[in-house]
Amino acid sequence: MAYLKQTLKKDSFYDGCVPLVSPILLFTLISIWVTFSPYNILAKETRMFFWMFGVTFSNILVSILMIICQMSNTRPKVFHWFLFPLALVVYTAVTGQLGRMEPMVLALFNMFVTAAHVHYGICVVRQLSDYFNIYTFSLKKRIRE
């Protein structure tokens, strides 16, 4: 509908597909890890694995990227930076280099992506609060001197 009304800021097919690249790569990496893990990580560390997958996916999530990019009139990046450390972890796990350390590496990666996700959320909230000149949990205007 937005395309027909010509209200899109970026209306090419390429710009519409760019936000899908990172989630597709995330699903591919996760599938490779689950399928070829020598430790059988999904069966032995189910909660921790799904926590990592959920936090990583929510940070890469297409709708959040689209909202931020539409608000700031910028183009989303093709590859989300979370994919690079994840690819390294998946490669070392699948090739058997981690051995029994795979759950510990998963836990460390969980802490890393959770901290990065919380940091991203705090930064977005602060920037929006500054832009709208309000306090974070209030609609009162700030007094600027």
TrEMBL record:
Transmembrane region(s): 12-36, 48-69, 81-99, 105-125
Record key words, sorted: Lipid biosynthesis, Lipid metabolism, Membrane, Phospholipid biosynthesis, Phospholipid metabolism, Transmembrane, Transmembrane helix
Main location: membrane
GO cellular component: endoplasmic reticulum membrane; Golgi apparatus
Subcellular location: Membrane
Keyword check for Nucleus: no
Example of a GO MF term: ethanolaminephosphotransferase activity
InterPro entries reported in the protein's UniProt record: CHOPT (IPR014472)
Cross-referenced PANTHER family: ETHANOLAMINEPHOSPHOTRANSFERASE (PTHR10414), SELENOPROTEIN I (PTHR10414:SF35)
Family: Belongs to the CDP-alcohol phosphatidyltransferase class-I family.
Protein name: Uncharacterized protein
